[in-house]
Input
Amino acid sequence: MSHTAHIRSHRKPRRSASTIAMRAGVAGGVLSTLAVAGAAGSASAAEPVTQTLELPTLTADLSAQVAQSADATQQAAANYELRAERDAALSKAAKQAKSDLADAKKKAEAKKRAEAARKAAAERAASRSAERATLSASTTSGGGSTASTSASASTSAGASTSTSTATGSAASVIAFVKAQVGDAYVSGGTGPNSWDCSGLVQAAFKQVGVSLPRVSQDQSTAGTQVSLSNLQPGDILYWGGAGSAYHVGVYVGDGMFVGAQNPSTGVVERPLSYDPPTGAVRVL
Output
């Protein structure tokens, strides 16, 4: 290679004046554009911005899900209502069963009381029959003179009581007990429509101001003991021993008495011969 050969220079070539001018013009245009954009931005910033939100459009799958959820809710409500109806029915049935049980218990208790009253009446009747048999045997064993005396006493009693007439408080007592004839006999009854024997006697004397004990045993010793041959209207008759009597009634004159006898007869008026008393007391 020749020493005089041309070697390329690494210096950059000088820019021409036209190139420099063109670049300056471009820069100026860019600056102008930025200025205009800045002014427009400022102006836009002063104005309110309205933003529109678009709601998502329901798709077919979403609509199906909504419908399915509504059906499930409706079914749940129907199931709840059905359970409520069943619970109400069960509660009503339980109340009805409880009421039926209470009624059955009441009927059973009433039946038991009636049976007890029937048995008590039967026992009293049996006791009276036994006492009559004992008295009859005693009279028979006493001989003719005793029987004659007894008959004479009965005749005297019949004569003395057949002509007696009640007055004053005795008349009021008799009117009261006669007014109750036909009422029911109930053990422990004290009126106004059902009685036991001592309840009727106590009520009869209470309305004339005489206070008597409640039970037959005590009423048989409440006054002065009187002979059956010397009865007066208003005397209290008793069956059994004095202080241990099991039945009482009121002598109403003319050989008759009124008493609450038993559940089968109720309150009745009967002759003394129907059920001869053991003794009598006088409180008026």
